[in-house]
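Changelog-adjacent note: as of this version, every example in the card shows the full chain rather than a window. The one below runs 188 residues end to end.
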Amino acid sequence: MAHLIVGLGNPGEEYARTRHNAGFMVVDLLADNLGVSYWREEAGARVGVVRVGADDFVLAKPQTYMTRSGAAVKRLLERYEVPLSGLVVVHDDLDLPEAVVRVKRGGGHGGHNGLRSLVESLGSGDFVRVRLGIGRPPGRQDPADYVLEPVRGEVAERIESAVPHAAAAVMHVVEHGVEAAMREFNGA
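Full-length structure tokens:
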């Protein structure tokens, strides 16, 4: 079975250490854990492919910026003949407390531009999401500024400490199914 694991983020060094790139961080760790040794540019994304047992993993980091990531994901689903049920999207989430990881299937975009692009391009929001909480901006800070500001110190440490947990959630989805992953990671 083929699985397309997509981390949402923005390309470029200026975004590398931002909250919005939590998805990229998780996919990078998964690539290390699964032994992806080569990334190539394909369909508007950086793609690493590896076979583990009977499963093919296509790890992707769209390079089209959040607002257009859906087009790259749609092309990858088609190219690798992965059904929507085989898509797992990892993304930051303002509505979860910092460093909390949750799994869900389906839903809207909740104001997240990457998810909005995916739902529009795919015609459906019925895919699995692994959500990594980044918390709400303090005071009246604009959420767009909040997600794109570089994080350092304790904030960076808290977010980075959740990356292995999110990577484990992705693998749990693949190995045991989304319902089992929701029970395991959502505290239900």
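Structural remarks: The chain has six helices and seven strands.
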